Fold each of these.
Amino acid sequence: MYAFAQEYILIDTVKLNCIYWYEFQQDSTSRYSLKGQEMILQIGEHHSKFAAVHTLFNDSVLMAYANEPNSQAVFDKIWALTGRNITHSYCKHYIYKNYPGKDTITFTSYLNHKYPKIVEHNSLNWRLINNSDTTILDYRCKKATTRYAGRNYVAWFTMDIPVSDGPHKFSGLPGLIVKINDTQNQHCFQLTSVEKPKWIQPIFFIKDNFVEITAKEYTDALNVRMSQLFNKIQHEDGITIDDDEQKSRALHNVKSRNNFIELY
Amino acid sequence: MDTENITKSICFSIFIILFQQVSGQTMIKGLIISTDKELLSGISLVVHPKEGISNMITFAIADQNGAFQFQYTYAGDSVGVSVRSMNYKDITIWLANKSQEMLIELPVSVHEIKEVRVKGQPIYGRGDTINYIVNSFAYQNDRSIGDVINRMPGFEVTERGEIYYQGNPIDKYYIEGLDLLEKRYAIANRNLPHQSVSSVEVLQNHQPIKMLESKIASDATSLNIKLKNGIAMTGTLYAGAGLSPFLHDINLTPMVFKKKQQMIASWQSNNTGNDLNTQHQPLEFSNGVFTGLENIKPEFVGISSVSHPPIETGRYLDNHANLLTYNHLVKVNPTSELKINGSYYNDKIFEEGSVTTSYFLDEQTLTINELTKNTYSKRSLHTDLTLTQNNASKYLNDQLSLNRFWDGESGVIRAEAEQSQRAKTPHISVSNVLDVLLPLKKNFLRAYSFIDYNSSPQKIVYQPGVFPELFHNGDQYEQTIQNYTVRNLVSHHYLQFTLGHDPWSLETETGVKYELQHMRTFIEVDGAVLTSDSLNNDLDWSHSEWYLKEKLQYGKGDIRAGIDLPVSLVTYHSEYPYHDNSGQMRKIFVSPSFYLKYDISKYLSAKSTLRYSSELGDASRISQGYILTSYRQMTKQAGKVPLKEGYHYRFELEYKNLVTGFFSTLLWSGARNSNNLLIQHNVSQTGMLYYEAINQKNRSLSDNIAVKLSQFLSGMQATIDLNGDYSRNKKEYLVTGSLGWLTNQLFSIKPAISISHWDFLDFEYSYLFQLIQQSSVQAHTSVTQQKHSGSMFITPSKQHLIGIKCEYHNIKQKRQGNFDVFFTNLSYRFKPSKGKLRYKVEMNNLFDISELVQFYNSDISIEESRCQLRPRQLIATVFFEL
């Protein structure tokens, strides 16, 4: 009855937990529309998983109760632990790197009762920039640039953590990405913590009733959801907006959710 | 290395020699293995210039076969290759800068990674509460707390001020833990400056009833505003003026929030067509149901009004409205609070219009032209006094309400002669709702009690006197008064108990509804009461209903289903001296219903509902004396309680594909009903109408098919909608002594598009086509209505906003004519980047359209109604932040 229909497939164990603070402008036209979300990159021996911290925590709670009977009491317990955790609709996804195959990026999400899945190959073309080294969080960082999904990015990576990985779908540099932002500064991931797990932490691939789509289709679907939200407000709730100014602002609000990290 | 690899490397060597000759590039290829000869993947390799390892020439990551490859252009004679990994030793190898092949063997060595942690997040949580630090989210151009909340992750604030958290509306809006405004929290959200707020607390799974906390789960989210200081004073102020005639629009809303008491007051006044009554009538609801609806005022008599066209109220409402509201909450002790909410409204509304009615008589058509000018004087007061006690062992909520109306209306109708009419429709209602929760073992028992006393001494005066042939031997006379007084006491009490065993739940509710009513009507002619039995009603009746409601629900997987089985025993007892119709009646009613929802696939779901009902209608229809319901209409009831019986069905298919952006719904619903009473219409040769309910079993049936399609085009940020609707209603009516069918059919189609692709422009357009057909034994009519509406908002910069709104209506009736109207509204808003002022200029009804025509049909007539609209007007408004 609850979220137990999912299947958890053990794919690796965590070697390193890297937490990023993801700050993004949800409205491409407004600097004031910044939102933030804590994201985690779990690096294993062969695979890695990237998701919102809240999402991962909620999953672990659901896992813990997965074998208990489906009762209201269990649901209440789960809800008490997970209910406070919120994830912005731009961050409600999982990104598995090198899974199922090497160089494969699997993106899964949940959008309006559907489970979209996107499988891609790592095809980032990085350009190294010499003589711009810096230190972030005590790590010596090197600079590299790339272009991905409609935006140009500047990344800082460290060979102190010799893992070719990073936030979102970014990877392929000879060290962990410590900070990456687009040149318009609308999306920025900054590493805030790196910790080795104190106990054995499994990395699960969460299998759902997936619908396989392309990355572009996912971006479109997110836009559709925003439009639905607006229509819901305007039509289903029986609200008619007579005031021109209010109406214009309502329309603007729809427009303002136009800035998912991937643009197509 | 095996033979295959050797062959490969020979080929590679030949290739790189050739390659170097041609390009001048260096190509290094190799394999990485562990000391145990295991191929290593995911290892980072970087090529450095000979000057040092701080710079990089290129890099590679070893693939799953441990293979890597570099290809670069570098002029130096040597390069360094650094190898880095998590579980093997870091090494740097210096090589001559030439194309070559290499094998790297790495010894195991666990890499020590520097662990780091940065502290301090603007959002932190503890248990079910999340705190958002307002300073972290506020920006300079934010004004109210609502602006800041809108930016917080997880929140959405709509234009009407409703707050959504994670897509669901919030349940309660507390300020410092107190719920002053209930569902009218937008006033605070829009006007409370964020500078006085320290944090916003999100209370997840908030159960407002403390006794149920941690016992009954709630999935509701509430919000608590934590103020910086003990006191915050704030509010809204704007004033507008315009022409013509002289127009004004004023809003003054001050607020005070203290630890133990809170106050929000408001004074609003306008004659610009802004209906303040919508703010006066509280729409309060709890547990998803409206409460207080029982207090709505009934009108038993009334002047003949002008039919309002289906357009925005502001286009025709000619008002002079004032609204005064006061909301005050006092915390009596830590778990109890006392709240008073009062609202006073007065309004003078003018309306003007004309009606042409054609009646189909047996042998001819009678046409009556009426020109109507009305004035409504509305004055009413709503007050609620609420006491809430809410602690871990007790929940009690009691609300005492007093609603009083001093409404009056008057009008003049010019037909062949001039007829004036004046009605007074006062009403008073005193009610009390008590809701108590008591613990009962592990579950809870809910006790609910509602009592409402209503009194409505209403009357209407006609001048000159009406129905002279009936009341005055055919001679003209001065005035007729219809008096109509109703007093009643309504109550509803129940006990509710729920048992659950997943996936089943069973709710049992048992209760009683009791109603005691007195109705008195009489007619005065030139000051003398007409004593004839047939013109008087003096009725006392009581009605009681004992019921038991069982509600069984099931929900698992793709299926949701439920059965409701209410059984009630209804008793009527009436005393009716005038018509010797006293008596008693006792009957058992069962109204079962069933619903099922099934998710057929990921995209498609089906829902269905079936309901059978049998019920008694309005008991006042037991009366038998004639009542004047308009200056040329008399109505008589059947002397019997109406009994309605029938079934209703509804099927719905819903398809949603988020990826393609296509959404659609198909709906089919219908009802088959039978009634024991039938209204018979008689039209005299002079246009006098007699409505009489007679004992005649009759049927009615309705069917409706609706289709909604919607496609979102993400490239254009556009939504295209298409709604179609077909409905057919059939009912039996009396025609020359026998039953005939009256059929109404409505066909409508509405395509619409909205585009918000551009930053500087928003555009919307819709078209509505409606065909209304009516056929009866005597006649067949058809009316076509078309409406085009479009709006456009232009934002050349953030400070300026220009709005244009147009509407075109076309109404066509066979053999009656064709009417067109075109409306345009213009507006301009200016907001300086600094300061507390904001300006707006509006021009409404640019082309000064003065009236709108509508057609209405009944089984005996066609009505063409014209309604006067507000003239062109210009309004300038200044907004000031308190």
Amino acid sequence: MFIVTLNATINGLLYGSIWGIIALGFTLVFGVMDFVNFAQGFFVIIPAFFSYFLFVSWEIDPYLSLLFIMPLSFGLGLLVYKYVGVRLLDEPHSAHIVVTLGLCFFIENLLLLLAGGDLRNAVTSYTSDTIQWGWMMMSYPRFWASAVAWICVFLLFLFLKYTDTGRSMRAAADNREGARIVGIHVDRVYLIAFGVSVLIAGIAGAVIIPFYLISPFTGMDFLGKAFAAVIIGGLGSIPGAMIGGLMIGVVESIAGVFFKASLGNAVTFFIMILVLLFKPNGLFGE
Amino acid sequence: MPEKKLKSWTMIAALCGLLGGSFSFSASEALGAANEVLVAGVLPLTGTNASWGIRNDRGIRYVVDWVNAHGGIKSLKGAKFKYVSADTETKADVAGSQTEKIVSENVSCVFGCNQSPGTLVASQVTERKGVPLITVSDYDPLITQRGFKYIFRTVPVMDKISTSVLVFAQAMNKSQNTKFTKVGILCEDSIVGDSAAKALEKHTKEIGYTVVDVVKYNAATTRDFTGVLSRYKAQGVELIVGHNRPADSIQIVRNLKEIVFNSAMIGGIGGGWVAPEFLRNLGPLSEGVIIASSETPDVKVGKFAELKKEYEEKYKEEMPSTFIGGISGAWLLYRAIEQCASTDPKVIAKTLHSIEIKYGDGFYFQQFGCKFDEKGDNTLASAVIFQVQNNLRVSVFPAEFANHKPIWPKPVFK
Amino acid sequence: MSNVSRTRKPYYYLGGAGGILLFLPLVMNDHLLTVAITGLMWAYLCLSWNLVFGFAGQFSLGHALFWGIGAYTSTVLFVNYGLTPWVGIFVGGFLSAIAAWLISLVVLRYRVKGVYFALMTLAFAEVFTGLALNWDYIRGPVGILLPMKNSPGNLFFIARAPYYYFILGLLCLGLGVTYGIQKSKLGYYLKAVREDEEAAEVSGVPSSRYKILAMIISAFLTALGGTFYAQFFLYISPEIMFGFGSQMTMMIGTMVGGAGTLLGPVLGSLVFSFLGELLRSLPLAHSREIVTVERMIWALVLVVVIFYLPGGLVTLGDRVKSRKGRPGTS
């Protein structure tokens, strides 16, 4: 039983890394420009569908498809920011939520029209492979998906700490007016931040398609996970998003081992409430 | 302030006018002409159950077109069917209002709704108005427990189907001299999943097998079963049974492989286990999986084989159970109308209560024929067990109807 | 003189519209009545949500919770104890109000605002859903089926018209309460809080207390709507009652129509209801592809309206007027 619990924990960490990275995109945008992007989940499944399409049509492995998906996602992010995001920056959060929800609705139906409602995933040769190391058992595609996720996190960290654009982003997040005064092109910084957030979502989409079943309706599921992670970890905090994601992954995995009926989501949200009550800015929030 | 109010009320009044106009529009569109029999399908064509609804819809249309192409309804002097489908958007209240609408247009019979809550609400409308509602896919026991006279269900109730997997296991244990008796139940927490879990637990105890555990998970939020399945493995479960939706049934088999859990049987009951996505996404992993349903994919009766070929060529997918449900239900209606020679819904309902359809008659392919009791349940409805062998679903039990021998226990994952 | 007639005119229109609404059941068939009833129900629910969002300025994403509590309370009391829903509806409202009060105390104490408040209320709703799904006393995921019979003493009718008048009554109640709040001290203070909470506090407005009050009233009204749903549709389940679908409808109707106004939510909700029904009535509406495309257009319309009419549809009249040569107005 102990081994079962350990393996479940590991499995939870793997899933959690993915939830974390989706949450990361959400929190980046919120932290930098105070924008609530309820459509983040859909920015994950659109590239997932695209990757699936590349796989079934031309047998391009999802990891290889990243070469296409990354620039396309980034571009999509820039477009969405330019036509939707920038107009909402000064509106209250509720407006962001409703507009991005409208966008969700639109995308969901568009995908339904183009791809139908069935569930799909890219059934690659390694989709059901397992890595076995003594007592440890890990799903091969999940392991690699997590690995890619963490590489992304690391690269993002480097970007924010050591590049000019990255530093400008952090400055703008802290103080918009101040940043402008100092000469930072705030609008350009926002544009790139949004692009990066959608880029990360795109990477997540491509690496989960080997093992995760998606349909046009899966977008909202991802959103729910992202929220929970971001609330627990702290809105606007990057390490927070990842920690939050990992926690959710582990809690859900362990719950599966010990509970008879899945209080599933309820446990996660309960933790969310506790965090909001005692540490409203999240475990790592400012 | 006053101007705002004025504008708003003017708008509301204008909308009322618009509303009235739009309805006269719709009313005239669907009314059956003198030589037509109007039937409707209130089905989820969009929303999460869309894949079921669309295939059910195809099935009904198929029979409708066939009848119309072969001289129409003879007892009504060659009258043709007019079939209209209304989308429930997989929402129970929309199912209700669409049924309300279609019933106000003089429909003779309604098919629905591929969603138990939807069927529950829609059947209230049809009962109030005295129009028969035939459901070919909803297993929830509540549907026929209200003393309604206008509800008809061609598929077995969940209890019957769920216990069939255990009956199969019992038979296999006996004939192959094995002793796999530890049962792990894993169902989604929907109405149907819940009744399946209860029926499974009860029956396991009745036959003297061990219920290791019963787990009901929330289908909307659960994506991974590694935790519960690892626990089942550690607790020595040998027979895994459950009612699950498509994503979950696929994930369960995958997770079982990932944790190298080679149980003696994986028994799926309807739901996702019979969906085309199951085989499509699992490929060779599905080898040996046992599935209970009321339609067998390889039956050798009547026109089944040619129909199957026709479907597969046209739609490039395995002929699914909801399609078979649709054609069976539509054929049942056709026979009923031929018999009573009337388009009056009340007369049709009466005929449905008395008619008996043989398995394999025309397009009736739900096991094993149709004869309704006064509650609307099909007394002849039974479950059949099929197994995935070489990436095809084949019937293996009961022996009288099986076309293949079962593989027992389930082969190990490769 | 013109001043008097300007303030009298809207009341004539109001009376006229009211009269039309009262006599509609005589001309509509059952299907139209059902559509009208459903439309009015959502309009009523939007009004309720508006009290918290439009008036108190709090973005509650968990309002389905109150709707569900109302429905479940009256239904369980009826099914298990035979208590007539005429009484049950108020018990539900009361329980819902208590829930709102507790949640508000907890939430507002920590000064949770904006998107945090929204997510917090959503979290509460989700936790409750999870609990409800596992609570056998209320039948869990299976849901509860209500009997279909004519029993006016228990708020069940075979005919549709009685339901119509009931929901019309609820709508009037909602409008009355909203109007009352608008014109009262509560409304005045809430407006101050909405515009600038800090300034209001500094001026001595006990913002928390009034926000909680708005939440309680809103929860009570929403719960009444929940009982109505149960009595009309005769089937409830945790998925239906606590799910996000109802929340979406409440939000969109209110925001598109005009939050914080008296008629905005009603207008927005009715527009969507009618548009939806109109689209379903078109000859091609039976095709899956067409329905999906319609939904896409709908989503775009929503986005466009929010962009160009942030005050909601009620401000359409003003916008049109300001275009016609009144350069000074915004």
Amino acid sequence: MRDRVVHDLKAIYTIWLRDVLRFSRDRSRILASLGQPLLFLFVFGGGLSPAMAPLGGGHIDFIQFMFPGILAMAVLFTSIFSAVSIVWDREFGFLKEVMVAPVSRVAVALGKVAGGSTVALFQGVLVMVFAPLLGIKLALDQLVMLIGLMLLLAVVMTSLGILIAARQKTMEGFHTIMNFVMLPMFFLSGAFFPLTGVPLWMDLLSKVNPVTYGVDPLRQVALQGSLPEQFMALIRLNPLATDIVVMLGFGLVFLTPAVVLFSRRD
Amino acid sequence: MEGRQMNAIEVRGLTRRFGDLTAVDGIDFEVRQDEIFGFLGPNGAGKTTTISMLCTLLKPSAGQAVIAGHNINTQPSAVRRSIGLIFQDPSLDEQLTGRENLRFHAMLYDLTRAEFEQRAREVLEMVELTEKADDIVRTYSGGMRRRLEIARGLLHHPRVLFLDEPTLGLDPQTRRHIWDYLRQLREEQGVTMFMTTHYMDEAENCDRIAIIDHGKIVSLDTPDELKALVGGDVLTVRTSDNALALERLQSDLDVNARHGPDGQLIIEIADGDQFIPRMVSGLAGESQKLRVQSVSLRRPTLEDVFIKLTGRAIREEEADSKDHMRIRRRIAGRRR
């Protein structure tokens, strides 16, 4: 029994290591996946910023407001992409070889969650590096908190991705996932606009959207000290602890069926 | 040490259904220790489904199999530990080096560092990739990738090696090369091999062959015995009027012929060389209406056996969604 646990832990480590090694070696992929968040941040954010300036009463810069949303975006997209890539990898890649190795499927699924989350976290950290450029000052404790929150978001989203991909045999459904899962989740998360005072339908959808509970704490932590407190109170949705607990809940709700479905032998 | 007379693979009533379709229909066979055993049949005959069940990737709907003494239904982990698998589709990580691919395999199979170092040296040597081992796999040719996959499949000393279409998509020279390795492997390491193929000429390399069609084994024997089923030589004849020729062959020459897959007539006959002149004059008859356009004589091949047993040639079936992915992958591969 103990041997099996050790062996499974080793398998999780192996699958994680492969994902990390692969990612670190692929410079073009790192740069390409950095492109989209930076485009949103500097072009979209930079363009809207002057127009939005009067709304905040001159207290906030729209780019600063958007920045935590872009952190979430980098994490969200990378997580789901790397999780969904198991569909391809299982038929035409290394994962096929993992599936016949004497390791439990639970370990394989957990290894993929660990690998995908690490890569997603790394993307988020890369975006975080641009904070000083936007006039956002981050103290060490804020940095640590942000990394923790991004990791939590990454684990939840990778689990969701694996849940989606677990029983899928071809890549044909991928665009559907992109259009009907990822983009709505991102737009309804409060990444681009405050969710205080939006129409009821949007309010309801955003409340069942896991990404909302990922963006809200990121914003609270990242902008603490950069924005005035009365404004922070205006855009805060939930206490920090509530966000974290809800995220943990979502994580459990996604991860459990993801592992079960992935482990089932045809 | 278990006795040498023990079979490496024993299959009893193995069945797999997908909805209404019975892909594998109650097959039985044994593979002996150290044997190269071939599973021959067209696409969609049930070859890959069988191999997936034997490798514990797919649950049988009924029946069972014992591999190297372990039951696939009750001891899947033990089965996995004692087998190596070379897939039809590539399963290397192209971003990693050859050696890294081997190292990940060793980690998954719980080899110690020292075991891995030594074994990696041996298998890389065997497939002549020692020099290339630290290059990224993306830079490898198709044949080199296949060789690395074979090396990887052998890393953990499997007792049985499964090869699913191991030479699919490779050029003839590379295919011969791969076969050299496999034969060498059997001689030096005594590994039992179970392989599927739809290349008839390759199946000749097997000790015994099971011909599978529509999920059933239609014949199982050595290549020579299978070819003996065809009896004598095979004559392929093209005429200006096949129906008339068939009639004359039967009535005037007392010979049975049948239509081949490509609009020719196939005649199985002993001493075919002596029969040709008789046939040509016999077919011509009094009226010169019937012309013999071409005649070829050859020893029977497994293709002839297959046509005789199933009434059709082995040919590609319609592409399914997985084949589409496969094609996309090849195109992507070429672009690089």
Amino acid sequence: MNKLVKDWTASVNRIFRTISGSKRVDKVPFLAFAGEQMICRVTGKTVKELYSSPKVYANAIITTFEFLNTDSINVPSAYAGPSEALAFAEANNKLDAIKWFDYKPLMCKQGEICKSEEDIETLEIPDHSKNNLWKNSLLAAKKINEKIKFPQVISLSIWSVVQELRGIEAYKDMRRNPDLLLKLCEKIYESQMDIYENWLEIVGMPPNVFIAGYSFNRHMMSFQDSMRYEGQFIKRMMNKIQVPFMLHNCGTSPYFTEVVKEIDFIAVNGSHPLDIEYWIDFKKKYPKITIIGANIDVSREMLTGTPSDVEEKVKENIINLAPGGRYICCPVCSLPWGVSIPNILAIPKAIEKYGHYPIKLD
Amino acid sequence: MNEEESLEKLKNAILRGDSNKAIQFVNESIKTGIEVKEILNRAILKGAEEAGNLYERDEYFLPDLLMTGDAINAATETLKNSLNGKSEIQSKGTILIGTVEGDIHDIGKSLVVSLLQGQGFDVVDLGSDVPPEEFLRKAKEINPILIGLSGLMTMSISKMVETVNLLKSENIQSRIIIGGGILSKESCEMVGADDFAKDGWEGVKKINKLLRI
């Protein structure tokens, strides 16, 4: 293993104390979603090289997150999106649905695995202990736990997997065959529980569950439907996994204020809205829910701006959301391939400048 | 059943997204002698417009729009078949669309395709993971009035840049719109597109605006 250059114990305390609402936090934590593309870029390795060995993968992840100077660290492939599609593709002999790339995560041709109604009826639930990508991802998470004592958070989802397996037909099923769609959601729920069981066995008890939610968006479905096809399953996960849950929601018109009334999340993170006023209002209404974000846009200041632009945005976020705690600074979505490294590094620099508690900014 | 009732029934079938009923009511309308233009404008397109209004008022959602889109396509196809090749339904123009290379998400793009077809455009859908050269080849072949590049991943932006650069360097004159939840005004300027949309419905509205239809 590579030699550590960062004090991870301080980062662990910063992140988890912030989420729990503790006052003993030295400064605003920095969390980033650095996917395989960023790890490949920093280490020069292909995704297949990363996935081939838990030791290589864990080392590359630690190197990348240390380089980016984040307070967070995670195994990007241990996420219920494309990796879960791969597990379903393998279990159902549909590997043609999967497309591999050299320097970014694999993708699933949406709707290929459950093209027909019969495909849903006969869909086999994967055994993740037999899937090499999942096995190595969980072993890498275990190695990270051991090496830097950073308890790894498990990521689960229902609707992102529905979209991978059924594609756009899932949205039509809502109106023409809701029972069939619920059957697919049930199967995905069982599969998610298989991931959890494997996680328990290999990595250990996670401190939190991070829900990669995709359904809680007005432009995609009604709130009633999002609760029916994803929310009710999250509630079941909560009953089974007795740890605090966090919600990530991709989409331009989220139901954050609605969903936190129905489901007891301790933290929320969204790719939208980008209006800081929304988040100020959210913090007022839900002071005990940690905001991970809020509006540092990966396609604006991060991609096309300068380090000064990023610094200004971080400052704006800290002024408005950090006082009182329960705020984690984070770009709104996965860091793009082309984002400049100085722009990423501008975030921890700005936190160092403005983000020490007590916050003394107007 | 009089003309008004016939068209109302067809419009309601479109609004409910009931393709079978839409086909049935198109056939009935034709039998009762209603002009094709009337069927199209007062029932099919009226239904599409009302569905869009309901979506904007948060009374309809993506599933409803998709079902309506299917019903529009079924009704329009039935109408075209009834004409036996006579071109009473004029196309608003041809649009070329696809998800850029390296990205295979297609839900937003499929919604746009379905709704644009329903509004009377001819849409050539190149599918997903489309290389810049393929966009260029097809653009030269069909000379579209507009080209739509879709992509969900943040990584897709650089491929959009590459595609637009290639199209412009080869003097393709079509308007260009990019679509994806991760896009912004700044990234649109960086790509060099005429406009951008963050979701499917916004895409349809902006395409109509770009083409001033």
